[in-house]
Amino acid sequence: MSAIEESERASVPWDSPVVRVVLASTLLAPLGVPLVSPALPVIRDAFGVTDAAASLLITAYFLTGIVLSPFLGMLADRIGRRRVLVGSLLVFGLSGGAVALADSFATVLALRVISGTAAAGIFVTTVTILGDAFEGVQRNAVLGANTAVLSTGAAAFPIVGGALVAFGWNAPFLTYLLAVPLAVVAWYALTDLEHDTNPENGGATRYLRGVAGSLVASGTAVYYVATFAAELLFFGAVLTTLPFLLTGTFALSPVLVGLTLTVAEVAAIAVAAANGRFAERVRNGPLVAAGFVCLATGLGITWLATGLGTAGVVAPLVIGAGVLFVGAGAGLVLPSVDAEVSRLVPTQFRAGALSLRNSATFLGRAAGPVVFAGIAITTGYATLLLIAGVASLVCAVVLAVVTGRVVEDVEDDVGGTVDDAVAPTEVR
Is 320:120 a contact under the CB 8 Å cutoff? Predict the structure, then answer.
């Protein structure tokens, strides 16, 4: 194969209606937390609630994703991806926009639960649609672009939310209304999707047995554990531990702390966007393991930096370099996991399988801050970074061994590659 042909295989078809609609939907998904976080103090004051009560706006949003994602995945497999995506966008836009009109905190909290449920539907269906529509290294490329867009929104929306809240506590929520016209566009743009309905799944019990059987046969459980571990480490070590360490030990200002965290997001965006190129040379399993090697390297560097002394700028700069590796690891893991789960699981059960990945993602994000903050009371922040780095390295070794065995076992069962056994239909 020529270099030009390889480049085309690993490229993102930006002119595809599927790609455009999915990436636009993915870009709106971070409106849920990054956009709202800067507004929490203002919302607290507007309704006269405590800090703990205000934080429920984040917790409620994540919990619905953890619990309801599998049900939404089942719905997408049974009635179609397009219907669930369009419905989720409509509910997301209307419930989020309605918060701007709420006159009580209880109403705001209830609407956040609804928005979180709809967001879970968006997360599940967008990844599933890309898994259906593309195959091989091009699937890695578009899933990498999807992750990069998600990270871009997560990096940019806190700034947008902070600017909008200057106009009132409810101003950021008006941006949710952008999902309504996008839902209309998605309904017409995705009419050519095949595998949009799967009546052959039969009843719910038969479907659940089919999903369970496909997950056991394909060995995808290890990828859910990897997703949970990666999110736990990133949200616990980077987004929770590092801000306290940088502020308390190195006396960095909030602006510099924010800049350090942005470095991680930028690295994640760059590496995720290049996932198709990596997949041309390396299988998804080793790519996920390599992501944990990057996490281990970055966390090890940040731990070493804590021993360089608190004076000067050397230690913070070294920590910035470590964060770069951590962000790269996070950007490598998620699209590789999505690509491998999409490859291993049959089309009629793919949304259900990917919905479990979504639950693992949200669970890791919700547990990371709590787990790391609790352990830090005993170990201190510096030692905790070392422990996290060692844990990441152990995960990398285990993944390298287990994913290699999974590939060999599955290919032996089907007499060839999984892509040959379950080839998705191309949709452009």
Answer: no
Q: Across the chain, what does the average pLDDT equal?
A: 85
Domain ranges of the chain: 10-191, 217-418
19-36: per-residue pLDDT in tens? 999 999 999 988 888 888
Higher-confidence residue of 388 and 36: namely: 388
**CATH architecture designation of domain 217-418:** Up-down Bundle (1.20)
72 vs 30, 59, 113, 356, CA distance in Å? 19, 19, 15, 10
Query: Given the structure tokens 């290919």, which residue do they identify?
Result: 411
CA neighbours closer than 13 Å in the CB half-sphere of residue 425: 9
Q: Please report, rounded to a whole number, the percentage of residues in the chain having pLDDT higher than 70.
A: 88
CATH match for 10-191 among 1.20.1250.20, 3.40.50.360, 3.40.50.720, 3.40.190.290? 1.20.1250.20
Confidence tier at 312 by pLDDT (50, 70, 90): low
Alpha-carbon distance of 307 to 43, in angstroms, equals 40
For residue 27 the two structure tokens come to 């870009």
At what angle are helices 51-79 and 105-133 packed, to 10 degrees? 40
For 395-425, what is each residue's pLDDT tens digit? 999 999 987 765 555 554 444 444 444 444 3
Q: Could you check whether 10-191 and 217-418 share the same CATH topology?
A: yes
